[in-house]
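Materials and Methods. Structural model of NAD(P)H-quinone oxidoreductase subunit I, chloroplastic. The 180-residue sequence of NAD(P)H-quinone oxidoreductase subunit I, chloroplastic from Stipa lipskyi was retrieved and submitted for structure prediction as follows.
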Amino acid sequence: MFPMVTGFMSYGQQTIRATRYIGQSFITTLSHTNRLPITIHYPYEKSITPERFRGRIHFEFDKCIACEVCVRVCPIDLPLVDWRFEKDIKRKQLLNYSIDFGVCIFCGNCVEYCPTSCLSMTEEYELSTYDRHELNYNQIALSRLPISIMGDYTIQTIRNSTESKIDEDKSSNSRTITDY
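The predicted structure was written out as tokens:
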């Protein structure tokens, strides 16, 4: 016979192999029905950010000494630091500090190398806007705490516990119980 004809499998062998492949696919499909969904519906549900998540940068104006280390370590020279030298106190005085988050790559070098720790990374990641010029944050916008921190239960609990400790110190003999 021809060599091509001998290379083909018989009809019965092909049917058995096809049935086995379809059965394996069907079992795989059925095994996925017991799994929980992995996706989240983003605007309505927010994912929990990891502990060292690099989100929007938080800036504390009072701590900054205008040393410009953040500008030197930034791979794209992004932070804009405006300062003037005060002769009477012999120090730099910070006038303006701004970061354009449309250009920022969120590497975290500025936060890591800041000698006064006036920069920190927050967990805020929703920075989208329709105008790219709104992504240029000045020191006032950078100093705002994110909404997630303001509404955080643990921070409220810590604040309440410190207030209660202050109250206990004032009246150490009183036995008032407050329910938070």
